[in-house]
Design goal:
The protein is globular, with a radius of gyration of 16 Å. Helix 1 packs across helix 5, helix 3 runs antiparallel to helix 4 and helix 4 packs across helix 5. It has about 160 residues and is mainly alpha-helical. The protein has one domain.
């Protein structure tokens, strides 16, 4: 497969996860998903930026996008749900790691901030047998610059308090 086609296939494949990850920036806020509780180390489990509203709106939008792609591209019916759940749990894992490192919500942790949701989405998609190694690597390569550009745009639009 030529590189342009591989990038297009990677974007089609990962798009529900991108949507899932972006929507909480717009719809988030509200009650924290960790109920404001601390881990045994005395630090927040996930932090105040990970909320039920953001989680469920992200899940709903990503799943809907995946359902549409399932119809258009003949992907498995649970494709969007699995990618969305993976993206959300991957993002939560990244937040958990950042809290263990003593980082505040919104602090930059290079690489982790750009790929945690993608790693989760890829792992949750494995039962679908849709992903080969080339596609997975392409997703991991194209995501950091896309993530940085979209976050910068969200910052410029006033949707985020930092450009990363």
């Amino acid at each position: 497969m030529e590189i342009t086609q591989l990038i297009i296939e990677a974007l089609k494949f990962i798009f529900p996860a991108y949507c899932t990850n972006a929507i909480p920036v717009i719809t988030g806020g509200g009650y924290p998903i960790d109920f404001g509780k601390k881990f045994f180390d005395g630090k927040p489990i996930f932090g105040r930026n990970k909320t039920f509203r953001g989680f469920f709106f992200g899940l709903a939008v990503g799943t809907a996008v995946g359902l549409l792609e399932s119809i258009v591209f003949n992907y498995p019916i649970f494709y969007g749900l699995l990618l969305s759940l993976g993206a959300l749990f991957g993002d939560l894992a990244g937040a958990f790691l950042k809290r263990r490192l003593g980082m505040a919500p919104g602090d930059l942790l290079p690489v982790i901030d750009q790929v945690d949701f993608i790693v989760g989405a890829v792992l949750f998609s494995l039962p679908l047998s849709m992903l080969d190694l080339n596609l997975a690597i392409t997703v991991l390569i194209i995501t950091p610059p896309i993530h940085l550009l979209t976050n910068f745009a969200a910052y410029k639009l006033g949707l985020k308090s930092n450009p990363w």
